Amino acid sequence: MGGSKLPASWCIARVDELGDLIRGVSYKKPDASNTPREHYSPLLRSNNINGTINHDDLIYVCNDCVSPDQYLQKRDILIAMSSGSKNLVGKAAQAQTANGDTFGAFCGVLRPARTLDARLLGWFFQTRQYREGVSSDSKGSNINNLKRDHILQVEFPLPPLNEQRRIVEKIETLFAELDKGEEALREAQHLLALYRQSVLKAAVTGELTDSAADDWTKVSLDQLLEDIRYGTSKKCGYNSDGVGVLRIPNVVGGRINLDDLKFAQLDSKEFDRLRLKAGDLLVIRSNGSASLVGRSAVVSKKAEDLAFAGYLIRLRVDTEKLLPDFLQIVLESPILRAKIEREARSTSGVHNINSGEIRAIELYIPPVDVQTEIVDQARSLLSEADVLERLYVTELTRSAALRQSILKEAFAGRMVPQDPNDEPASELLARIRDERDAAHETAKKAKAAAKTKPKKTRKAAAKKSAKSGKAAVKKKQPKKARKKTAKNSAKRKAA
Predict the structure, then answer these.
(1) Which run of H or E residues covers position 158?
(2) What is the pTM of this model?
(3) Which of 10, 103, 213, 423 could lock onto 6 through a cystine, CB 3.0 to 4.6 A?
(4) pLDDT band (50, 70, 90) for residue 241
(5) The pairing of beta strand 286-287 with beta strand 11-14
(6) pLDDT tens figures, 396-427
(7) What is the CA 378 to chain-centroid distance, rounded?
(8) Which run of H or of E encompasses 121?
(9) Could you tell me whether strands 49-50 and 52-53 are parallel, antiparallel, or unpaired per DSSP bridges?
(10) H helix runs in 210-349, sequence order
(11) CA-wise closest residue to 330 among 305, 360, 362
(12) Is-contact 221 228, C-beta < 8 A?
């Protein structure tokens, strides 16, 4: 790892020598539910993978859709095989328990060999080396995909089994110390998020100004829009010959971010329809995470004359009645966010809000001069929170970098001393291969035996089935029909 020479007792193994990759569950919409149901299992998706497995925003799938090996087992490694973002495809997390979870078709599970210390393999899938390798392997126009071989052909630096255990113990000791610091930072972030929510709530309820409540008017958003429009469905790429197109990754933290800008070939008519102006509001209309649906950003001067992609909706408001910045505050307010997320949720794995639902949003608006005052007050308070948030993010980034340094040392063979009495990794790998080959052969024979029945047994079963069928037909026939059938049968015999 990192180009350094491995210890003599180590060897390089491919992932396909160390475990089996299992595909995720495919299901139809009627087989899924947003809420727990009897005979349904929790289904994990890419949004449930973030270093560890979380159970946020779950859907539930009918058990009939799930094969036995598609239930997550302890030490399985859950991998995002497909994603709209190269930064997300390939992310992985190891299951610490087996509690009946399954996983969707955009994910895969690596099930490590029993002879291996699976915890070490799990840590390897958190390394920068692994993520960068699979990110470069993924391909796709709008969706980045990993093929099975992209995972199975990954090279893993394999230590002797006893050394694996020593390395895991050292990693977990060091990471436990980092966990304490990160936990304190995340708690501070949580408190900061609550503060932001209180500011936004105060902004839309008039608590940030002395404006009388009587001055506020209840309206539907439709009454305040000059235009609402979906973006282009044209394929976008990094060839800068075309028109710059803003996508979901460009709508970040309530602002337009022009990094990672893509381009598309648009004719003049389409470009005129989609040309952005300063003050337009771009809203995310579709995403795998319900928490991102409805998030918005006001178009800045720098983003003027760009176009926008189909997963975004452009709102152009009547600025004599409604300020775009005030509308963004309304869309981010806690009550409306809860409503948007609730209505956007879908069992398909992709959550949506459409133009009709946006038009129907009801809001209270004060006069424009009061809106200006509220926007200024809210910006001032939220900018103070932004300063603290950047500090927390910086410290968390440092901690993440330190984790990567620890893992780099671990997989270079420099974390713990080698013991000459340990069984060499090459011998361990040979043993793993033999055990897996034997297990696969046993499973293959069992599968074949289940499909094959003796000839006599098949004939007897068929005969029994036929008799059962005749008996069922006979039972269903009315009494007169049975007599007629018997009479006709007697005539045929006589003939």
Answers:
(1) strand 155-158
(2) 0.72
(3) 10
(4) confident
(5) unpaired
(6) 999 999 999 999 999 999 999 999 999 999 99
(7) 32
(8) helix 118-124
(9) antiparallel
(10) 268-274, 324-332, 334-344
(11) 362
(12) no
